[in-house]
Amino acid sequence: MTQDHLVDLMHRLETTLDNAYSCEEAFALLDEYVELVANTEEAERVMPLVKNHLDLCPDCRDEFEILLHILKTADSNSDD
Ligand SMILES: [Zn+2]
Fold first, then answer.
1. What's the domain range around 48?
2. pLDDT tens string for the chain (80 positions)?
């Protein structure tokens, strides 16, 4: 393994840590995260990487806001 190769590998590991979740990974957990946000104060603590991704990714945050809105709307209509 050359020095360059090693540096490249370390850089890639670092990048992976920095980026945390990909959109796909965050999206897979979004339902669960939205329920945590709606029902508890614990969402950020339980799923910090999802929160982290939403802070960095406007696309996923849009999706999150939509899901949260749907969940809240469904809740308020459930007592008929
Ligand atoms: Zn995203």
1. 21-76
2. 677 887 877 766 555 555 579 999 999 999 999 999 999 989 999 999 999 999 999 999 999 999 999 998 987 765 55
Look at residues 9, 44, 50 and name the one whose alpha carbon lies nearest to residue 29.
Answer: 50
16 assigned to some structural domain: no
> Ligand 1: distance of its center to the CA of 27 in Å?
7
Q: How many whole angstroms from 34 Cα to the centroid of ligand 1? A: 15
Residue 63 Cα to ligand 1 middle (Å): 9
- The answer to whether 20 and 53 have CB atoms below 8 angstroms apart is yes
Query: What's the total number of domains in the chain?
Result: 1
- Ligand 1 centroid – CA 55 distance (Å): 9
